[in-house]
Amino acid sequence: MTPAVAEPGAMAPIALREFHPFEAAGERYVYMVPSAGVFKLDDPSAAVIDALSTGPRMPDDIVGELSGRFPEERLRETLQELAGIKAVGTADAPREEVVNDLPPEGFPLTTMVLNVTNKCNLACTYCYEYGEDKIVDTTFGDQPKFMLDETARDSVEFLLKESGDLPVAHLTFFGGETLLNFPVLQDTVAYARRRGAEVGKRIEFSLTTNATLLRPDIIEWLAENEIGVTVSIDGPKEMQDRMRVFHSGRGSYETVQPKIKELLRKHRTRPIGARVTLTRENLDIRRIYEHLREDMGFWEIGFAPVTTDSARDYALEDEGLDDMLGQFEELAFEWLEAAVENEHHGFSNVKDTLEEIHKGVSKAYPCGAGLGLLGVSTAGEVSLCHRFAGSDDHGFGTVTDGIDREQQREFLEDHHIKNKTDCHTCWARPICSGGCYHESQVRNGSTTGPNLHFCTWVRSWTHTCLEIYGELAERNPEFLARFDA
Fold it and tell me: What angle do CA 160, 161, 167 make, to 5 degrees?
């Protein structure tokens, strides 16, 4: 527990405040809301919490009740400590409101996602860019199919300027299928590296690809330039070929499998990850993980449920989300046992959530979109993120004119968790903050609302990750230092 910093009113009843209790390795913990702090309860603290579980009590009554088990002085110190972390407080104190803490003016851009093309050589059934849920018409719209060198260079200058004094900025290439515009990737990396050196800033590069266009010279370039690579792939052959198909309807597994093997064999300068889209028809997570990690050799595998309208045949609804949660939990505790032994496990979903817990992340927004992360369309229009690239309704300026700060500020005000009243009583809001904007747009027709269909899942998954965090804190606390970077 923290040192005593406050004392509840001795003449007024006190009550429990907002937190989520959990247990790990035989110990009791609390996850504080909204501060996102994690505290281990010693025996007196746990006893006080239990004494208040039935309702408000006078402090002296609690001390008197528990004085046979603990020294009175220790109990009063415990009450002060619990008040200090806001686990207890005066019973008639108003509920702590969600603060409308907007980010400061001129906050830096940390990541720019460059949509170098909006064309793709695959026709994945669930694709948010080309399927039934698309927000921007990339087929018949006015957006150019490929980003020009000039636009890419303007985008680099935009990143260098908008990242401010940050020593490192991140540039991610995206599509469509990113490698369809490989010449622009080559030129942009060379230009960005030179310009970054001139202004004293390091730029780190990554890209996402479906792997169909990988060839030896591209793989060599990726390795030599230390480009982080994420491969979109859905698992073994029958799973990959179910929805990730060419325009002819032919499955893509036989095409990508040898190319991925070669990528993993030759590209050793950065870890290579896989990103799996989970649908109602693609939910054998254990089998997918084992195939991609053990058979293919990916360093990490991340899973994401498809973002789509609930009416789609492949949408994940209640039963599917429950199935996904159960399998996630199995992999998560397997990840824990590896971490206890300081061994690597490739399930990135649990690692990402644990890092947020360790750093005490309490989000006003669900992600960095529109804040530290912005997407750029093939025409150089700046948007909320890559999923909204080219959308007139979600734009923040252009790479040549800069960010429209008024429009960005309006977005941040409208989308702050302060305005998501459904979230205000949820203990998992520091991690979730309402969920993905794209999912909300697809399901609700607006980015402003929380994704209520996902709430039970988020709470259950966060609880699991808290348990794993507590287990690590007890069994291998040194491992948690890896999240400090």
Answer: 50
Strand 272-278 and strand 402-403: the pairing is unpaired
> Which amino acid is it at 354?
L
* Residues 1/39, Cβ–Cβ less than 8 Å: yes
Q: How far apart are CA 223 and CA 267, in angstroms?
A: 5
Whether the CB-CB separation of 286 and 335 falls below 8 Å is answered with no
Task: Please tell me whether residues 314 and 358 are part of one structural domain.
Answer: yes
Rounded Cα distance between 99 and 433, Å, is 13
Alpha-carbon torsion angle 469, 333, 471, 22, nearest 10: 70
| DSSP secondary structure code for residue 117 in this structure | B
Full residue range of the structural domain in which residue 39 is found? 14-90
Residue 293 φ/ψ, nearest 5 degrees: -80, -50
Q: What is the DSSP letter of 90?
A: E
Residues in Cβ contact with 215 at an 8 Å cutoff, skipping those fewer than 6 apart? 259
Distance of CA 71 to the CA centre of its chain: 45
pTM: 0.93
User: What is the C-alpha to C-alpha distance for residues 425 and 416, in angstroms, rounded to an integer?
Assistant: 15
What is the rounded distance in angstroms from the CA atom of residue 429 to the CA atom of residue 34?
8
* Residues 78 and 338: beta-carbon distance below 8 Å: no
Burial bucket for residue 278 (CB in 10 Å: 0-12, 13-18, 19+): buried
* Tally of structural domains, the chain: 2
Q: The domain that contains 80 carries what CATH number?
A: 3.90.930
Q: Show which of 406, 426, 459 is a domain's final residue.
A: 406
Backbone angles phi, psi at 232, to 5 degrees: -80, 115
Asked, for residue 452, whether it belongs to a domain, the answer is no
Q: Is the pLDDT of residue 485 over 60?
A: yes
Asked whether residue 62 is assigned to any structural domain, the reply reads yes
Q: Please, which residues bridge with residue 19 across strands?
A: 32
395/409 Cα distance (integer angstroms):
12
Structure tokens belonging to residue 144: 């150019």
In angstroms, how far is the first alpha carbon of the chain from the final one? 24
Q: Mark which of 406, 430, 464 sits at the end of a domain.
A: 406
pLDDT tens, residue by residue, 294-316: 999 999 999 999 988 888 888 88
Range in 89-93, 124-128, 148-152 the model is least confident about: 124-128
Q: Which of 24, 62, 23, 181 is nearest to 116 (CA)?
A: 181
DSSP code for 392: G
Query: For 296, which DSSP code?
Result: I
The answer as to whether 472 is a domain residue is: no
**Residue 274's CATH number:** 3.20.20.70
Largest interatomic CA distance in the chain: 77
